[in-house]
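Is this the right way to post structure tokens for a design question? Let me know if I should format differently. Anyway, here goes:
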């Protein structure tokens, strides 16, 4: 999908507003007052673990589930009570939902046939859609004659051929192997940008969300926990759940000893005094119990001659060691009882530590983050 210009298959991108959407199944709350807006042409990912409510939210937007409360607005129009077919929303499912007895062309053209479009116009749009997803020459094949990636492209072509205002993607790469999954992530993002489609993407894969999104909305237990740019959600998680769920993290507990401007000094419960800097808006005061997050890749090897001296030093011994290509991953136990996860760059100039060796690592105050203040 490398063409610079897209065939004319996309309608004007629509704005989506979810206003106070709530949904329960018996005593189980699937959605709790969810409010979120998507600008026209924006790619937003709903990220969360299984059971967080993300697929229920997608079904409410598409019209497959009725919300108990709240509204779904598209371009300022209330579509809450409309049938799915009346909402003009494209959707791609994890299992693709292709008709096995229909050819590729008939699968792609099915939404147009349901809209009673003239056959000549259907043929024209199907050809444009297949060109868009680079499946020219495969119009007469059946789904079983296609690879998983090709079936995914057919599903995308079918979801966009009728010029939807919105595109919903429900974990569409779940059935693909890792290499193909990564390839399809980039291709879908490229396609979405060319078409300018407002897109809501559902996944439980944190890396996938970081790679593909304009913004990420993290869900847990039916509630939105944080909405922000990918780097904001990763670097400045709003709470310990997000810090733990997105990527790897060390969460250290301690008590604030002092604060000066944007520097907070924290005495760890099991460990040394550390400093946290760069959070002027946080109301941490002396005596308060806090949690501090430090990402494993923010640590530096203080024994390396070229390593900058970090203000926060952690000494310990290596209990686990793993080589993972671009970095070496260590689990470190400190004399005070801390269990620290560290990633250090690998390479010919980097030292590789073995299990049982002593290690001195550290991190800068600006690379730590207060994520909870009691």
């Amino acid at each position: 999908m490398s063409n610079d210009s897209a065939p004319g298959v996309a309608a004007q991108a629509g704005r989506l507003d979810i206003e106070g959407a709530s949904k329960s199944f018996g005593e189980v709350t699937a959605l709790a007052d969810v409010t979120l807006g998507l600008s026209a042409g924006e790619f937003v990912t709903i990220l969360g673990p299984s059971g967080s409510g993300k697929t229920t939210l997608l079904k409410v937007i598409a019209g497959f589930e009725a919300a108990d409360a709240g509204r779904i607005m598209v371009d300022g129009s209330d579509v809450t009570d409309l049938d799915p077919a009346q909402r003009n929303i494209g959707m791609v499912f994890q299992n693709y939902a292709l008709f096995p007895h229909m050819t590729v062309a008939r699968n792609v053209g099915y939404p147009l046939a349901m809209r009673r479009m003239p056959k000549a116009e259907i043929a024209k749009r199907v050809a444009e859609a297949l060109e868009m997803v680079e499946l020219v020459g495969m119009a007469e094949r059946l789904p079983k004659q296609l690879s998983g990636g090709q079936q995914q492209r057919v599903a995308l072509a079918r979801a966009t051929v009728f010029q939807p205002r919105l595109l919903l993607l429900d974990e569409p790469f779940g059935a693909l192997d890792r290499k193909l999954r990564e390839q399809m992530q980039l291709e879908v993002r490229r396609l979405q940008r060319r078409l300018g489609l407002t897109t809501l993407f559902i996944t439980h894969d944190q890396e996938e969300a970081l790679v593909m999104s304009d913004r990420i909305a993290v869900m847990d237990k039916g509630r939105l926990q944080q909405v922000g740019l990918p780097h904001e959600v990763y670097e400045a998680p709003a709470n310990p759940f997000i810090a733990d769920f997105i990527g790897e993290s060390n969460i250290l507990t301690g008590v604030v000893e002092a604060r000066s401007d944007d520097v907070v000094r924290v005495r760890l419960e099991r460990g040394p005094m550390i400093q946290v800097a760069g959070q002027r808006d946080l109301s941490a005061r002396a005596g308060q119990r806090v949690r501090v997050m430090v990402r494993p890749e923010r640590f530096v090897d203080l024994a390396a001659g070229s390593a900058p001296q970090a203000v926060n030093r952690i000494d310990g011994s290596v209990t686990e060691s793993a080589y993972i290509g671009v970095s070496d991953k260590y689990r470190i136990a400190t004399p005070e009882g801390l269990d620290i996860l560290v990633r250090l760059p690998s390479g010919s100039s980097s030292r590789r530590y073995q299990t049982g060796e002593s290690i001195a690592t550290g991190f800068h105050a600006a690379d730590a983050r207060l994520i909870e203040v009691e």
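Format looks fine. Someone answered above. Worth noting: Helices lie at 54-62, 104-114, 119-132, 148-160, 178-195, 206-212, 230-235, 240-245. The chain has two domains: 16-243, 248-373.
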